Amino acid sequence: MSKKSALTAASSRGRYCNTGNGPVMQPIDIGHDDYVGLVSPDTAFWSLVRKDKLGGVMFGGELMAKYRRKSASFAREMDVLRFGLKPSAVYFNPTERCNLNCNYCYIPEDMRKNGQHMSKADLFKALTLLKKYFRRTLPKGARPQIIFHGSEPMLNREAMFAGIEQYLDDFRFGVQTNGTLLDKDAVNFLTSRGIGIGLSLDGHIAEIADKTRYNWSGGGSFDKVLAAMERLKGYPGYNVICTVTRENMQSLSDIVDFFHANEVPVCMLNPVRCTQRGAREIKPTDAELANYYLAALDRSYELYQKTGRKLVVANFANVLVGIVAPAARRLMCDISPCGGGRCFFALSARGDIFPCSEFIGLPDFKGGNIFTDDIETALTTRAFTMVTGRRIEEIEPCRHCAVRHYCGAPCPAEAQEMNGSLAKTGAFCELYEEQVRYAFRLIADGKEEAFLWDGWDLGMATTFEISTA
Question: Cystine design at 290: which of 220, 257, 434, 463 (Cβ 3.0–4.6 Å)?
Answer without folding.
Answer: 434
